[in-house]
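DATA SHEET
Item: assembly model
Revision: 1
Owner: S.N.
Input lines:
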Amino acid sequence: MAAATEDLALAPYIYRRKSVRKRVLSALHSLVAVPMRDPFALAGVAIYAVFVFVAIFANQIAPYDPLEILFADGKLAANIAPLTEPHILGTTNLGRDIFSQLVFGTRSALIIGLSAAFVVATLGTLVGLLAGYFGGWVDVVTMRVADIALGIPFLPFVIVLAAFLDPSVWNIVLAMAILLWPNTARVVRSQVLTVRERAFIDAARVTGSSTSRIIFQHVAPNILPLSFLYGSIAIGWAILTEASISFLGFGDSNSVSWGVMLQDAFLSQALSRGQYYWFLPPGFCIILVVVAGFFISRGYEEILFPKLRD
Amino acid sequence: MLRVMNRLLHMVFVLWAVATIMFFMFRLMTGNPLAAYIDTNFTIEQQQALMAQFGLDKPLWKQYIIYMGNLLQGELGQSFFYRKPVGEVLMNAFPNTIVLTMGALVIAYLFGIPVGAYLAWKRGTWVEGVGIPTVLATRAAPEFWLGMILLAVFAFNLGWFPSGGANTAGAEFDSELARFLSLDFLWHLILPALSLSLYLQGLPLLLMRSNMLEVMQEEFVTMARMKGLSEWAIIMRHAARNALLPVVTTFALSIGLSVGGNVVVETVFSWPGLGRLLVGAVASSDFPLAQGAFLLITLVLVTMNFVADLLYHTLDPRVSHGSRN
């Protein structure tokens, strides 16, 4: 109660002085500050930084075009063992440089991971905000739709979508947008339900703020960290899903991704030939990126829900 | 009782909604409702029989009623590829998937629960420092990639296990049951089940660990300490029993999730289950089979969510007491 009255008393000062831009900036600042306090989260950020660097400078880092069929001394440079100059990780059975594929795979992994995370977090936050703030039938309808989405098996749904749409990694983003928003929406919704009752929202209402202003400028900044938490989890999910879908042959086979590399290795008998240098590295890269996501989300979780800290 | 009815209604609602979405997806996205059920290679008689059975010449709303009626009777049309009723094809694959899923889950829980309790006990030591990141790494690894490694090492390199399928080609059995109980089947099951359980063990392990840490703070554990019981007795007899309940609930949940997630592992090991059927059906545009496999996987998922929900309330009375007030 004390906190609530304090809120009400201070509201006009705090919320008039601080511009919206500043409020969003301070929310963003806390997002950056969080990982610095947790060693695991810091490690996660560091791993991401490396992968982002590799993705941006892929053209400079990769020694070859990942799809170029290489020749050496007039012969196809196929199945070259790793650590042979100039192929650090060797070549595929078609004479393609594995290290270059790995480098370019980073780019597609991050593109798909970040765009899926952005779509899922945005959609989930938006729905959660509206359902939580308006309540009533908006809430009932959206939460029923959320129940349906959660009743649909994820990977099989992506596969069925592939039956109708052209093979593309964007199907995965689409499927994630359709099926994974409810997790974010539910948590955001319950958070909005408590924020909605806080005194500064009343104060905003009394001073005549419009509904959209209240939702997006007063409520939303308070739940931004939650959206980030679910977004950071979605990155890993998207990368894993891309790998599975590409492995099954429903991805874009002209692109270079870790999933396509694994499919290529599997279909080209790399397993029976014992070409571990071909199919181990893409898996390790996937693990690193996904684990980094776990670490970062763990950092946020401990700040957002201190009770979980054991 | 009211709660059970309520949850049951909820389950039926979700199933109805998913079936409806599939109806529209397969009729509208194939461009032509006929394409969803009739392969041009079918004989004229077959085509006409399917036309009549699914009312494909009738308006869409009538087709919808017929579709729902057929669905309730398990009538899903003819598979383009197998030239057999979809129901029959699905029922051949379903037991294989269930056995694989259950086998993997049992291994995962038998391993995950005690190890999770152990890690909780070792909290703050180097064991935890190594253990937790390792478990997280297994959860971050693609299941099929783990399968590929096991396949390369144990099937191709060492030759201890077969590289795919559920039975040696040409093997004959008196009955389905005899097949499942045969050593040959078990031989084929080990690698795919192991790669699935490598991924699945993370959930019971981490859950058991956090439950244990929570339970260790409770008064009855302090009481047991005051009675002078050994640390082992406190952990096994008092803490673990109470921490176990929520983990049991997730077992049911995992069955549902895993049946859908098996898809890739079944493909790696050519395991003749539902997931591989779905992948094959989509790849060859066998629409009736794809739809049937998807609906069956959904049915398992939704049913298991329902079971988990019931279990949760039955096993932990505190939850239902809360909702009654």
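QC remark: The longest helix of chain B spans residues 86-121.
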